[in-house]
Design a protein that fits this description.
six-stranded mixed sheet; 6 helices; Ribosomal Protein L4, Chain: A; alpha/beta
């Protein structure tokens, strides 16, 4: 497959150069099965799994036998906290559990690669030369998004995903108050957050980190 060429912009929104995407990663193929599994695994890991009920041994009371075993004409009962009784315990009820499970690394990488290819196909991937802030303020960050013609007042939080090469406290402070934007490091990116974002913005260094990560 011929390499895809994309423009690289500066923070003023001007095209400064172009880059050919590595065809080993950006081959245009979208493996929907891998993406489906990766998203299910991600959502499963987000579940709290805190649902719980008390068994007959955990319900308070019920220590004394309600009536003697024989001679009353009634069914034998050992405790008032039997699951058959009102205020009794629950049989085989839910208990706290961890819903997370691990996918093979190759499958996770394939899902991320597919989600990146999908963003390229949709023309929703924007590459920044670098992020330079004159002041560590939200208005400076919003100005960069505006220069790139990316809205900062979207109704749904997380419409824009910004990937950077490494954690930067100044960038984090400047961009954190933009409700429509989510900031992450390229090495921690996953298929779910890429797909749910309408726009993917990443620095040139972050792109190289992703390519290096996915070509292993």
């Amino acid at each position: 497959m011929e390499a895809i060429t994309l423009p690289i912009y500066n923070t003023l929104g001007k095209e400064v150069e172009t880059i050919k995407l590595d065809p080993a990663v950006f081959d245009g193929a979208v493996n929907t099965a891998a993406v489906h599994q990766a998203i299910n695994a991600y959502l499963a890991a987000q579940r709290k799994g805190l649902a719980t009920v008390k068994s007959r041994g955990e319900v308070s009371g019920g220590g004394r036998k309600p009536w003697k075993q024989k001679g009353t004409g009634r069914a034998r009962v050992g405790s008032t906290r039997s699951p058959l009784w009102r205020h009794g315990g629950v049989t085989f009820g839910p208990q706290p559990r961890d819903f997370a499970y691990t996918l093979p690394a190759k499958l996770r990488d394939l899902a991320l690669k597919s989600s990146l290819c999908a963003k390229v196909a949709e023309s929703n991937l924007v590459i920044l030369d670098s992020i330079v802030l004159e002041q560590v303020k939200t208005k400076e960050a919003a100005k960069i998004m505006s220069n790139l013609k990316i809205g900062t007042k979207a109704e749904k939080k997380g419409n824009v995903l910004l990937l950077i090469s490494k954690t930067d406290s100044n960038i984090k402070r400047a961009f954190k108050n933009i409700g429509s934007l989510r900031l992450d490091v390229a090495k921690d990116a996953n298929a779910y957050e890429v797909l749910v974002s309408k726009k993917l913005v990443l620095t040139k260094e972050a792109l190289q980190d992703l390519i290096k990560r996915l070509k292993k």
